[in-house]
Amino acid sequence: EYKKVIKYDWEHPDFDATADKFMQRFDENGNFVNIPKIEEFADQQVFLSYYTINVPVKYEIVSNGKNESKQEF
């Protein structure tokens, strides 16, 4: 005789969906509720400024003590 191995809590015969926190997130039609709202940016500049770094870069050329006529990169 085959007996199904119970892997998840909801597979138990005494599982109470009304007490389960995850199952409480579904309405009577099975739709997931309380989905986080998607923020719409009124101005795309707000979105672009998040990824923009406005830090100035300063380069300082230091002599390495070798022949100055040769430039190595």
Describe this structure as you would to a colleague.
- With 73 residues, this protein is largely without helices or strands.
- The protein has one domain.
- It has one helix and no strands.
- It has one helix spanning 44-51.
- The longest helix has 8 residues, at 44-51.
- The mean pLDDT is 76.
What would you call the structural class?
A: little secondary structure
Largest sheet data: none
Question: How helix-rich are the residues, as a percent range?
Answer: 10-25%
- Provide the residue-averaged pLDDT: 76
The low-pLDDT segments are none
Q: Which percent band covers the strand fraction?
A: under 5%
**Helical segment tally?**
1
Supply Rg. Answer: 31 Å
Taken in chain order, the helices and strands follow as H
What is the total tally of β strands? 0
Number of domains: 1
Descriptive keywords:
single chain, 73 residues, little secondary structure, 11% helix, 0% strand, elongated
Briefly say what this structure is:
The chain has 73 residues and is largely without helices or strands. The chain has one domain (9-62).
Topology readout:
Elements: H1 44-51
